[in-house]
Amino acid sequence: MQFGPWDVQIISGGTFALDGGAMFGTVPKVVWNKVYPCDEDNLITMATNCLLIRGEVKGQRHVILVDNGNGDKEDDAFMARFKFEGRGVLDASLAKHGVQPEDITLMILTHLHFDHAGGSTRFNAAGDIVPSFPNARYVVQQQDLDDARQPHLRVKASYLAKNWEPLEKAGLLDTLHGRTEILPGITGNLAPGHIEGVQTVMVEGGGRKLVYLADLIPT
């Protein structure tokens, strides 16, 4: 998909599973299960769809990733609990487009829940957790980073410090304060609903507009 100078592709960070009742809330299971069938554990399959955005603006080439899925550093028990598709899914998805983790110049995070930011960090050969995209700046809304540091009970399990603390330590994490044009034609904007600090990402160009909604419409 082309939006002015920006080429946008949807790529996969892998599938996983969450409780259907938690996802659909007050909608009765007899209703949602007809269109989104659950398994024997009442879990429904979810996809971590990310955006790969590439383009040149003012003579500078940008390779941007919006969200990065579950990542590869969780242990087998965690992966089994949430029925992760497997390891290496995001790297394989990027490779299909000729992109390596080192090529990413900007990592935009809609929020810091593990299914959107889990791929931000990974284990290196020495067993330390380090940034997955060493040449990228990472950006997130300040509101979400504040909430991640002091989460309330309902969302505490979704915020894992190992997904952002190594970024801060490396000096790679920047924060936004509400609506911000990150690059010409690419804007982040707070969109409270799923959580207070979640942001949408809008790509504009060539008379067209795309809005990445993240968990505002999670299914």
In words, what does this structure look like?
The chain is α+β, with helices and mostly antiparallel strands and 219 residues long. The protein is built from seven helices and 13 strands.
Features:
219 residues; 7-stranded mixed sheet; globular; 35% strand; 4-stranded antiparallel sheet; single chain; alpha+beta
Number of helices: 7
Radius of gyration: 17 Å
Question: Can you summarize the main beta sheet?
Answer: 7 strands, mixed
- How many beta-strand segments? 13
Alpha-carbon distance between the two ends:
22 Å
The chain-level structural class is: alpha+beta
Q: What would the average pLDDT be, to the nearest integer?
A: 95
Strand line-up across the major sheet: 1-2-3-4-5-8-9
Helix content: 10-25%
Strand content: 35-45%
Order of helices and strands: EEHHEEHHEHEEEHHEEEEE
Poorly predicted runs of 5 or more residues: none
Shape: globular
Summarize the entry for a quick read:
The protein has 219 residues and is of the alpha+beta class. Helices cover 19% and strands 35% of the residues.
Describe the secondary structure blueprint for this structure:
Layout: E1 2-3, E2 6-19, H1 20-24, H2 29-35, E3 43-57, E4 60-66, H3 76-81, H4 89-95, E5 106-108, H5 114-117, E6 121-123, E7 129-131, E8 137-141, H6 142-149, H7 165-169, E9 173-176, E10 180-183, E11 186-190, E12 199-205, E13 208-212
Parallel strand pairs: 4-5, 5-8, 8-9
Antiparallel strand pairs: 1-2, 2-3, 3-4, 6-7, 10-11, 11-12, 12-13
